[in-house]
Design goal:
Blueprint lengths: L3 E10 L2 E11 L4 E5 L6 H9 L6 E6 L2 E2 L10 E4 L11 H11 L4 H14 L15 H14 L4 E5 L7 H18 L2 E5 L3 H7 L2 E6 L2 E6 L1 H6 L4 H6 L6 E4 L14 E4 L4 E5 H4 L4 E10 L4 E7 L4 E6 L10 E6 L5 E3 L9
Parallel strand pairs: 3-8, 3-9, 6-7, 7-8
Antiparallel strand pairs: 1-2, 1-4, 4-5, 9-10, 11-12, 12-18, 13-17, 14-15, 14-17, 15-16
Helix pairs in contact: 2-3, 2-4, 3-4
Bound molecules: adenosine-5'-triphosphate.
The site of adenosine-5'-triphosphate (ATP) has 12 residues, from β2 and α1.
Length: 342
């Protein structure tokens, strides 16, 4: 049975319909990630679930209970914000125990719960410090700890790592993944970070303009996007999508339709070695990322493609190349951008 169920959820800001009837079923223990372009409604949907915004239409059911209009404090959810939202004058211990104290829990039980959460999050040695004496990553762990001690039915995360630098973001992401593995808590996580979405999610929900475009496991979305929008939203650098006429070697493209190719399915050879098989093109830009190289190329027909190669290519700006595509891995879209199955 569904643990958290969204049925026809609607939200208006004045005349603006920000969430347009969202249906979604989440199972107990799932890690769900909301992604989508800026302004698509990810945070609003999370805030509606949290009870921080009023739901204007539809129904929200958690563990068999209709919580559509329940106050936030009565929903048994815990939210972790981008900004941490810690109390600056309280110690880490007091921050983490605050909700339990309000709920009039026994002090001995509070201490035990906070100490257990602190241990999980490697915060034991910081319990007496105030937030200002902590790094950004440690503060975010305190914010997560504050959510854990409440043992809520659902954890809600709103871009929790976006204030951290790249290294710490990676580290904290791994900690969140481990935490989910160990606690198995139902989690909804908003991000615009591809890597967070792909690595953390059991299922990703792709939103666009207040509606769900597709829901699926990371690899389902990567391998079988329902449409061009999802295809280009999931994966970095984004999937190449060009008019079918540019890639005659890909069969089965609907009239007026498009071909999509992941950058790893485009390979390049120096023109002198390419022979007759490749499409002639010119290298526009070579980006070396160390372990891999991204090469931007313009095919003579005008199509622009990016190729991802796991090696140092030896190619340079302006080089003439032959472009080879892995037609077996090509995606086909009709003129409206919907995936066409062959
Ligand atoms: P981002 O990735 O930029 O945070 P988002 O996908 O989280 O974007 P939301 O913040 O949910 O998007 O906003 C969805 C839409 O609702 C946007 O058009 C936004 O301008 C609008 N919106 C959000 N909050 C309010 C508000 N309090 N009042 C009016 N409009 C709002």
């Amino acid at each position: 049975m569904a643990y958290l169920q969204l049925q026809g959820i609607e939200k208006f800001f004045g005349e603006h319909r920000a969430i347009k009837g969202v249906d979604l079923t989440i199972e107990k223990g799932e890690f769900i990630v909301f992604v989508g372009p800026s302004g698509c409604g990810k945070s609003t949907l999370l805030r509606l679930i949290a009870g921080l915004e009023q739901i204007d239409g539809g129904q929200l059911v958690l563990d068999g209970r209709d919580i559509t209009h329940a106050p936030s404090s009565k929903r048994d959810l815990a939210m972790v914000f981008q900004s941490y939202a810690l109390y600056p004058h309280m110690s880490v211990f007091e921050n983490m125990s605050f909700a339990l104290k309000l709920a009039k829990e026994d002090p001995a039980v509070i201490r035990e719960k906070v100490e257990r959460a602190a241990k999980i999050l490697n915060l034991t040695q910081y319990l007496e410090r105030t937030p200002k004496a902590l790094s950004g990553g440690q503060r975010q762990r305190v914010a997560i700890g504050r959510a854990i001690v409440r043992a809520p039915k659902v954890f809600l995360f709103d871009e929790p790592l976006s204030n951290l630098d790249a290294a710490l973001r990676g580290q904290t992401r791994v900690e969140i993944a481990k935490l989910h593995r160990d606690l198995g808590a139902t989690t909804i996580y908003v991000t615009h970070d591809q890597v967070e979405a792909m690595t953390l999610a059991d299922r990703i929900v792709v939103l666009r303009d207040g509606l769900i475009e597709q829901v699926g496991t990371p690899l389902e979305l990567y391998d079988r996007p329902a449409n061009q929008f999802v295809a280009q939203f999931i994966g970095s650098p984004q999937m190449n999508v060009v008019e079918g006429r540019h890639l005659p070697q890909v069969a089965g493209v609907p009239a007026g339709g498009f071909v999509g190719l992941r950058p790893e399915d485009v390979t390049l050879q120096p023109a002198a070695q390419a022979g007759a098989g490749g499409l002639p093109g010119t290298v526009e830009l070579v980006e070396s990322l160390g372990a891999e190289t991204l090469i931007y190329v313009t095919v003579d027909s005008g199509a622009q493609l990016v190729s991802r190669q796991p090696v140092r290519s030896g190619l340079h700006n302006g080089d003439r190349v032959g472009v080879f595509v892995e037609a077996a891995n090509a995606h086909r879209f009709d003129a409206q951008g919907r995936a066409a199955r062959v």
